[in-house]
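Can't paste images in this forum, so I'm doing it all in text. The chain is below; anyone willing to post the predicted structure tokens underneath?
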Amino acid sequence: MGRRKGSIGIALVTGVLLVGASACGGGGGSDKANGDDAKAPGKPSASSSPSPTKPAGPPMLLETITPQTGTTVGVAMPISVVFTNPVAAKARAAVEKHMKVSASQPVAGAWHWFGDRRADWRPKTYWPSGTKVKIDADMKGVTNGNGRYGVRAYTHTFTIGDDVRADVSVTGHTMKVTRNGKAVRTLSINAGSAQYPTWNGTMAVIDKQEKVHMTSCSVGISCDKGSPNYYDLTLPWDVHLTQSGTYVHYSTGDPNPGSGSARGSHGCVHLSMSDAKWFFGQVKQGDPVTITGSPRAKASADNGYAAFNLDWNQWLAGSASGEGTTSAL
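Text version of the structure:
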């Protein structure tokens, strides 16, 4: 299924959201940067004792930091920082060093850049449950390599909750849900059809909504009301997996999913109404949903929060400063 809009960003200071297309289917400020060379009363003039200066210009700002401060998230949740303007490759190592990640127990991890505006930090393996995490992004005086300098610091704190995982077998038509290593339930599912297969791989839950308006036109499947692939529906119990539009949810067009129904979705994972409501109540942002058995490739690591679709060497290839261990919290 498909809906008009979806978001993976969480408002940092104001209410700005990082917005992208979603649902089952295909597919800077104007303030001057503040210098630190202002003269104090009684000090010599700049001509007799010059102070170091930073070029005046527009500031380097952060658009979003996810997770939102004060939240409890799943074991696969990365820290995702989005900048309002591009960060040059030459400046990324310094920027990474000014985004300090601290935790209540040591955790190995690294930053990875997706393009020039988004940097995510993920642990080498899943976070341990119960870990308390803090990110201090002190950008004051830090350059983005393109003439902008940071003017403020940002701090977010969050907690890693229970280790809830869902493992979906496309060919087996099942979803196995575990909590802290113990099996909870096995649910019957249908995944994507041969024409619209579901993404493989591990996707951390982006968010969830009790109802989502989904349309085939919004994700480029069909805008023709006469097409068998056309839909315009509001559906319940929606767990959001990719920015391109993958959900786990209930569909009126597939009310009894499982191996006997022989129905395929437009890329989403379908559950029965009761199972969809139950699953909705079990999961939170950052819980990993791993899908196997689909003919489709793994979702891109930046298609939502699919960081664990890259192996560790691939992840490090996108880091400017390499692997490190969290500071003590």
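The chain has three helices and 23 strands. The two ends are 43 Å apart (CA to CA).
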